[in-house]
Amino acid sequence: MADQLARHAAFDLVDRMNELIRSSTTDMAPSMMRVPLEHYNSQERHERELQAMFRTTPLCAAPSASIAHPGDYTTREVLDRSLLISRDAEGEAHVVLNYCTHRGAMIANGDGCTKRHACPYHGWTFDPAGTLVGIPGAEGFAELDRSTAGLVKLPTVEAYGFIWCILDPNGSVDIEADLGEFGAELGRWGYDSFWKVAVYDHVFPANWKTTMEAFSETYHFPYVHGASIGPGVIANTATFDLFASRHHRLGAPLTPMRAHAEGDAEFDPVWHTSLLYWKCPDLMLANTPMGVEVVQVTPTLDVGQTRLRHTMLARSAPTTDEEREIALAMSVPAANAITLEDGPTLSTCGRGLSEGDHSHATIGRNEPGVQNIHEQAQRALGEIA
Ligand code: FES
Ligand SMILES: [Fe+2]
Fold first, then answer.
1. Where are the domains of the chain?
2. Whose CA is nearest to atom 4 of ligand 1?
3. Does the Cβ of 138 fall within 6 Å of ligand 1?
4. Phi and psi (nearest 5°) for 170?
5. Which ligand 1 atom is the nearest neighbour of the CA of 104?
6. Residue 100 alpha carbon, nearest atom of ligand 1
């Protein structure tokens, strides 16, 4: 822990953040951006984005902490496919398609811990790597080469506290090439030793970019979160940096940092800052004084629908029941901010961006993170260099 704090990324940003606070401003993009509404509502364009961004790029299957122990597993829907994410007895993480090779039933639901996944239909069993290990009434399948009947594996690698996979079973996952210098930045936080507090799944009737936008600015905090977490943040004030020309970091000062900027307090990176990271295209990390909120945003096949998994991680596991209760209680306001505040707002954006008669959305110079999401989508489609 001391190590993590000593190399806290906020130390690199403290002078820039102080300057922004004193000047009541934020890092700015060079110009405003106009985003045609078809970027949010064209099904044809959506399918090209899925291919160019989501099927061919490493995605975050899960934070390592969500399946911390041998046998732990979780399931998720990604691009309308069910994924089973498991850790085997040796500690290796696997991502497989959650469909039985007998007659297709889904093997697992939710999350849990098991040495063997038993299909609920006829009881075929698979190990965490997806290998077929048992068939009731095996004489009916004497001709079956079991080595060909395992669950379909997706290329998977675990690094920096996350399990990364690529949705193409025949592809390969080169996470270092994808992250570039962003890998070292993620590595500063020691996410692989964090502890899972809680997980929430959402489905929003809005495009994936609309959903991701909400986690790339603090401009909306006084309005959407004004009666909850908003007062804790110095809104519309953040440093902005790109990594590997693709992923980004926002350095957002929290309200107690104002005293430091005015010379009245020592800088405390944990309690004074929230660093937000976007790993293009599907992962947002919001570092908080308690730990990190992991926000995984993936489209469905429908241009106007998004799935969001919100996992709260604490910096370390609790050592007593009381600490566990405190961690859970402290996670509630952040969970509610998405469930009760961002979610309903994003649903109205989904309507406005598909039903509105205006020609484009207008992204301000003060929203460089939002602009970057659109730039990366346009770059993936070959529209900009
Ligand atoms: S569908 Fe899975 S055992 Fe039959
Ligand atoms: Fe929000």
1. 2-56+193-380, 59-165
2. 122
3. no
4. -95, 0
5. 1
6. 2
- Is ligand 1 within 6 A of the CB of residue 124? yes
Q: Output the CA 338–ligand 2 centroid distance in Å.
A: 6
Do you know the residue count of the chain? 385
Task: Please report where in the chains the tokens 């936080």 appear, as a residue.
Answer: 189
β 81-87/156-159 pair status: unpaired
Q: Cα 91 vs. chain centroid, distance in angstroms?
A: 22
Asked if 199 and 338 touch (Cβ cutoff 8 Å), the reply is: no
For the question of whether the overall pTM of this predicted structure is more than 0.85, the answer is yes
Asked whether 119 lines ligand 1 (CB < 6 A), one says yes
Residues in contact with 299: Cβ distance below 8 Å, sequence separation at least 6, in sequence order:
46, 49, 50, 54, 79, 207, 208, 305, 306, 307
Is the Cβ atom of 105 under 6 angstroms away from ligand 1? yes
Query: Is 266 strand, coil or helix?
Result: coil
For the chain, give the mean pLDDT. Answer: 96
Say how many Å lie between the CA of residue 252 and the centre of ligand 2.
Answer: 13
Superfamily designation of domain 59-165: Rieske [2Fe-2S] iron-sulphur domain (2.102.10.10)
Largest CA distance in the chain: 78
Task: Decide whether any atom of ligand 1 lies within 6 Å of the 121 Cβ.
Answer: yes
Q: By three-state DSSP, how is residue 308 classified?
A: strand
Query: pLDDT above 70 covers what percent of the chain?
Result: 98
Mind listing the pLDDT tens digit for each residue in 243-257? 999 999 999 999 999
Ligand 1 pocket, mutate which of 97, 121, 141 (most atoms under 8 A from CB): 121
Strands 111-113, 117-118: pairing kind: unpaired
Q: Which of 319, 11, 346 is nearest to 210 (CA)?
A: 346
CA 362 to mean position of chain CA atoms: 25
Closest to 283 (Cα-Cα) out of 59, 69, 111: 59
Please tell me the predicted confidence (pLDDT) of residue 8.
86
Rounded Cα gap, residues 125 and 133, in angstroms: 6
- Judge: domain 2-56+193-380, CATH 3.90.380.10: yes
Is 103 close to ligand 1, i.e. is its CB under 6 Å away? yes
